Amino acid sequence: MFKTNQYFDGKVVSIALESAEGKATVGVMEAGEYEFGTDTIEIMTVISGALTIQQPGENEWKTYSKFESFQVEKGVRFKVKCSEDTPYLCLYK
Amino acid sequence: MFKTNQYFDGKVVSIALESAEGKATVGVMEAGEYEFGTDTIEIMTVISGALTIQQPGENEWKTYSKFESFQVEKGVRFKVKCSEDTPYLCLYK
Q1: Which residue of A has its CA nearest to B85?
Q2: CB distance A14 to A5 below 8 Å
Q3: Residues near B59 by Cβ (< 8 Å), separated by ≥ 6?
Q4: Predicted ipTM?
Q5: CB contact under 8 A, B28 and A26
Q6: CB of A59 within 8 A of CB of A2?
């Protein structure tokens, strides 16, 4: 039985799983801008479309497309923008 | 707001979305064997781990790994096996 979580009034929905690569969530974000906090190192992979990311302490935004990944450090906050429903995988390390 | 669906007593959970590539679901299957029916052509992509597929009318099973895709025709039933929680993307064409 999988646990589903909603964030930002349901604009981000995810399903928790124990993947081949470890603890993970697979989810979707609606078009918008979001700020997330990390409890572990997170490795996010874009499954379709693109995510534009602002890493903590940086001014620049960087865009990641289908099957591209980025890592965010533990215990930080980071910003994510997308322009359409964007599915992603998040691994917790 | 995303719609979440459960199948097989919650062993398969998916989230419906309108992706960059069209109508889609992103979801997860628990370890097990499942039979699905298609209402449209479906293009499934493995996000982590592997899915082993039996196409309709075939005896052989074929395994698809991370980021590999397979297509299933409209109006058929096909079988899927996996040996751990396996996230996938399904596009409806």
Answers
A1: A19
A2: yes
A3: none
A4: 0.94
A5: yes
A6: no
pLDDT in tens, B66-84: 999 999 999 999 999 999 9
Of the candidates A15, A28, A48, which has its C-beta nearest B13's C-beta?
Answer: A15
Nearest CA in chain A to B46: A47
Domains of chain B: 4-92 (2.60.120.10)
At A1 the pLDDT is 81
- Residue the block writes with tokens 């009034």: A9
Q: How far apart are CA B43 and CA B62, in angstroms?
A: 15
Interchain contact, A26 vs B18, CB within 8 Å = no
- CB-CB: which of A9, A24, A48 is closest to B89? A48
Which chain A residue has its CA at the smallest distance from B87's CA? A26
Tens digits of residue pLDDT in A39-64: 999 999 999 999 999 999 999 999 99
pLDDT digits (tens, 9 = 90+) for B24-40: 999 999 999 999 999 99
Only one residue has tokens 């997170």, namely A42
Q: Which of B21, B26, B20 is nearest to B2 (CA)?
A: B26
Which residue, chain included where needed, has tokens 């079988």?
B79
User: Nearest by CB to A89, which of B17, B18, B87?
Assistant: B87
Going from the C-alpha of B81 to that of each of B14, B34, B84, the distances in angstroms are 17, 6, 9
